[in-house]
Write a structure and sequence with these properties.
Length: about 220
């Protein structure tokens, strides 16, 4: 398949690109500064692009099978957390202009429930510094949920803790509830998160809904 990955130079975006290439897909990586990406591959191209501009989104995604958004606020530059809301709006409009239909979004874990009616981001132990980002990600999810059948979106929430690690190819799946292990922990490596995302790209199970993974 021909894939577009927005945010391809980020920690998760790079792993999505690598996993997609390993599976034989053709990938266009999009980032504000694509020169930061060191990977070279015959099936990989890179372009500078603005995920907040619907016209730019339309230009970049036209003719591709699946659009993947791995964008998020740059914490080192204290970027506005609400950029994920603006990105959601621009992606939706841009895909419609381009006649593209399939969108997979790297989302947040904060809006997952840990008990009926209780979200992770509302618990006392949730880091206060992450709450604005979690709230913006939850708002973006609601924007996707308001879309009709002309957009096959999937919102993919990670485990509570996601970090670089091993690619095992193993994970457990949930939907609206945080997935935890027997110790009550919720973790996934970025590598296995990318595996699960590409599994969804190749064999969709969660069209127009959210899902999550953890060990």
């Amino acid at each position: 398949m021909k894939l577009v990955v927005f945010g391809a130079t980020g920690n998760i975006g790079q792993r999505i690109v690598q996993e997609a290439l390993n599976r034989g897909h053709e990938v266009k990586g999009v980032a504000r500064r694509p020169e930061r990406f060191a990977l070279s591959h015959p099936r990989l191209s890179f372009e500078a692009g603005n995920v907040l501009d619907p016209a730019d989104v339309a230009r970049l995604v036209r003719g591709h099978d699946v659009v993947i958004s791995a964008v998020g606020p740059a914490r080192d530059r204290e970027e506005d957390p609400r950029m994920v809301v603006q990105a959601a709006q621009a992606l939706i409009e841009g895909l419609k202009r381009a006649g593209a239909k399939r969108l997979v979004v790297v989302g947040g874990a904060g809006s997952l429930e840990v008990a009926p009616g209780v979200r992770l981001m509302d618990t006392p132990d949730f880091p206060p510094g992450w709450r604005p980002i979690a709230a913006a990600a939850a708002e973006a999810l609601e924007i996707y949920r308001q879309q009709g059948a002309d957009l096959d979106w999937t919102y993919f929430s990670p485990a509570a803790f996601i970090e670089p690690g091993q690619r095992t190819g193993r994970y457990r799946v949930g939907t609206e509830r945080l997935v935890t292990d027997e110790k009550g922990e919720s973790r996934i490596s970025m590598e296995d998160y990318a595996v699960a995302l590409l599994d969804e790209v190749e064999q969709p199970r969660f069209l127009r809904q959210r899902f999550t993974v953890a060990y």
